[in-house]
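The data layer described in this paper is built around a simple, fixed record for each protein. Because each token names a local backbone shape, the row as a whole describes the fold. We quote a single record here, exactly as it is kept in our systems:

***
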Amino acid sequence: MRIRTVMLGAAMALALEAKADEGMWLPSQLPSIAKNLKAAGFHGDAAALADLTRAPLNAVVRVGGGTGSFVSADGLLVTNHHVAFGVIQYNSKPDRDLITNGYVAADRAGELPANPDYRARVTVGFDKVTDRILGQARGETGRAYYDAVDAASKALVAECEKADGLKCSVATMFYGRDFYLVKQLELRDLRLVYAPPRAIGNYGDETDNFMWPRHAGDFTILRAYVGPDGKPADYSPDNKPYHPPSHLQIATDGVAEGDFVMLAGYPGITYRHRTAAEFADQVQWRLPTSVAVLKGLQDVIEAQGHASQDAAIRYASQLQSLKNGIKRFSGELEGLQRSDAVVGRREDEAAMLAWLATQPEAKTLKPDIDQAMALIAQGKDVRERDLLLGLLSSQTQLMRGALNVDRLAVERPKPDAARETGYQARDEELIQGQLKQIQRRYDPKVEKALVTSLMTRYQQLPPAQHLAEVDKVFGTTPAALAKALDAIYGATKFGDEAERNRLFAASPADVEKSTDAILVAARTLRPALLRIEDEKKGRDGDLLRLRPAYMQALIGYREKQGSAVYPDANSTLRVSYGKVTPLLARDAVTYAPLTTVQGIVEKNTGKVPFDAPQPLLDAIHKGDFTGYADPKTGAMPVDFLSNLDTTGGNSGSPVLNAKGELVGLNFDSNWEAVSASWKYDPRYKRAIHVDMRYMRWLMDKVYPSPALLKELGVPAR
């Protein structure tokens, strides 16, 4: 295989005819579409948006699992209530339920430390490094190709992180064609400043999730701190507020239908450039299976939470994440089926390959494309087993901690560059933070029930998918599984924070000799998990080598069609732009793009999830909306719709007006567009945002914080 490193700029030019509502653009692409931006209504300089070290993009940060933005010179950071929900949950107890009641810090001394593994990262560099990453990989295949890319990436990251406070990573664009070194300042001391009650921040809960009209005040305000020397530091009472290089100005004017809006954020993953076979697998197996498995976990947590308020609080954040994932996957499945995406992608791919056959590059590209498709087909053989074992590692607390400590003991004796990503010296602080937060997010009875749900399904897999080590730990029958879990969780001391800290700091030899029941289980599982990892790396290495051929063909074909070509999202900083737009959801059903507080009253039942707090209802009844109401209607806005191109990870992304002022916070997509991570449909794709007028009004008239509003530059009226 001959790697073809084509400059992204060539692909950028293909985007010039793109519609304003489509595209998660790299900042470096924006100057090439400056005319489009201006025509859409942007008043600023598109070239300035390409510079990550300048406002406004240097005010946009990756926080938790989503996005946030700085909104004051003293480090105030605004994001979604659901993005910061883990912080709220971490600080909640049965006798101090911040989830239900919300929180307003009386002063800076009252700001509450986030969970130890919660981070904010500010992108300060984004440099192309394709030649260096692929230098030793060319000519290799499979695991050797993967290892060459991995080694080069680790070397670059290690070199980059010599600078204090930086966290660096290597991101690929167009699935292995181009690579970029991402430099981010990591802020480790985040504190809770202002959070509305659940019945505001999550008004409507799962009933309204991914639905329009919405009436949620999905926002939370945090503050970032640094050490006395101004450098990133762990929490300490002696730390001082971080002073960002710039911060966004909250608009005092609102938005109306047809207004230009722009969003910057860190969208997670999109799959729009995947093969037809991958589209089919997503619709026919992966989405329905994932929904079924996650629903089992949701049922477990809800049942345990009904029996224990303490358990309900401990697992509130995990439950919220599960419910969100289930509904998103369900909506994605429905949307892909409604648009007949599998047939459409198959026909599109066939047309692309037919076009390729007429091109000079066909002889070099087609063999690689055929190999990639064969590898993708092979991945079906053990997909459910790997899904279940992946969830065992991600949806447990104590088991995940034991697996991490065991793996860390394996990796620590190696040279740091040879250690597995996620277990290098740079990662140990985060692992330790995860171990610490177990204390407030773990209940043995709940975890046993979660593992039972996963392993019961595993036991029902065909014998060919079983792994001897997994069977040894959990047994092959429900009775054996119950007995094994009683033994593991009944005997372990790993639930004690001091014991976890001791084992985290222990020598690899001491960890290896531990007779603690859950560490013995982790040690027994280790060979099976390593085999799965090795197989995946070999397959991923070949796909990383082969997919660029598919992408080169697809880009050429899209160019012929005059369509947009931008890299699939991969958690790197992207910009979308469009307008405040209504939604024609289906025949004779059209939705206006703004909601008002009247909708809160109309939905209110006094019971979860439509149990609006009495102070909110009283303020709505009083009707003091001066300075916040829509100037044309006099109504108090809550949320608004736009046609901005977003996906998971864009939660909390700032929505800016034509002048670059903050007018909204992205927090959701509509049900008709959940499938946009795979297939973009301009008829239905909408993003849902909290109107900043609603946030300001709540902070002024309902749960007042005049000092905070003054710091935000929008004093109380």
Notes: Residues 1-20 have pLDDT under 50 and may be disordered. The first helix runs from residue 8 to 13. The two ends are 66 Å apart (CA to CA).
